[in-house]
Amino acid sequence: MLSSFASFSLLSLLYLAPTQAQTICNGHAELCGRRYSNITTIGTHDSAFVGDLPQDNQDLSVTAQLDAGIRFLQAQSHKNILGTLELCHTSCFEEDAGTVESYFSTVKTWLDANPNEVLTILLVNGDNVPVSMFDTAYTSSGLKPYAYIPPNSPLAIDVWPTLQELITAGTRLVAFLDAGANPSVPYILDEFTYFFETPYDTTDPTFPECTIDRPPGATADGRMYIVNHFLDLDLGGIDIPDNAADNTTNAATGVGSIGAQADLCIGLYGRAPVGILVDYFDHGNVFAAQNTLNGM
C-alpha cells in the first residue's frame, strides 16, 4: 500500500503535468506571457519554393520547416493561366509550388497536431487579386477558424495578445497580406498597416543597413517590423539566392550575421524586429539568433 506521502506526491504529479504542458508556447515557457508584438521570430522567405534550382529558397518542406521550429511562413502567390491562386515564384511559368489552398491545408494539419504553437503567415499578393480569393482558400482548407481577428484595427503595438492568450482562444494563426487586404475579411490583416520592412534583394554580405524600404514614406512609429536577411547574387541584373554564403548569412553572430543586422536595427528603432526572413534556414544557426533576441 502506498504511504500517505507517496499518494500525495503521485496525485500532485498527475495534477501538475497537464498544467506544466500548457505553459509551453512556441517551444518556450518564457514566451507564454509575452505579447505577439514583443517576440522575434525567424521566418522562411519564400517558404513554398523548396529545392536546388536557382529560384528556390528553402531545402525543407513546409511541414519540415514547422517541425524544426519555424513559426513565420512567407510566400508569393499568383494566378495561373486557369485563374487558380497558386504559390508561384515571380510567375507561375517560372515556378509553381501548388495551390494556396493546399499550402493552407498543410499548415492546418500541422496546427491540429501542435496545440501550443502560434504561427504567422505573410503572403505576397503578386497579381493584386481580390482578398476574397484568399478568404476562399483559408475557408476551404479549414485553416480559417484558427485565424486571429483583432478587436479593432489597427491594433496598437502594446495591446497585442500574449501567445498564451492566442493559444487559449484557439486563434493561433496571425495572417497578413501585403496588398489587397480589406476590412470585409477582418482576419486577413494588411501587412503595411502593422509592419514596415527593410530592403530586400540585398547583395552586400555585410547587410549594412536597416532603413525603411516599404511602405514608401513610412515611419517606424506604431509599426512592428520585418528584417529581410537573405543574400542575393546579381547575375546580369537577375537576383538569385547566394547559397554559398548561407552559413555566414544565417549565423547568430559575426559580420553579416542575423545578430549583427538585428543589433543595427535595434540601435535605430529601440526595439527588436518581430520577423526576420531568411533563405535556407537550416544552414547557419538561426534559432540561436532568435533565442538571443528574445532574451533566452
Number of helices: 9
Termini separation (Å)?
44 Å
Structural class: alpha/beta
Low-confidence stretches: 4-21
Q: Helix proportion of residues, in percent?
A: 25-40%
Question: Tally of extended strands?
Answer: 12
The description of the largest β-sheet is: 10 strands, mixed
Radius of gyration (Å): 20 Å
The overall pLDDT, averaged over residues, is 93
Describe, in short, the structure shown:
The protein is of the alpha/beta class. It contains nine helices and twelve strands.
Structure description:
- It is a single chain.
- This protein is an alpha/beta fold and 296 residues long.
- The chain has nine helices and twelve strands.
- The protein has helices spanning 4-21, 62-68, 100-113, 131-141, 163-169, 191-194, 246-249, 258-269, 286-293, and strands spanning 41-44, 72-79, 85-88, 96-99, 119-125, 173-177, 188-190, 195-197, 224-228, 232-235, 238-241, 275-278.
- A hairpin with a 7-residue loop joins strand 3 and strand 4 (96-99).
- Helix 3 crosses helix 4.
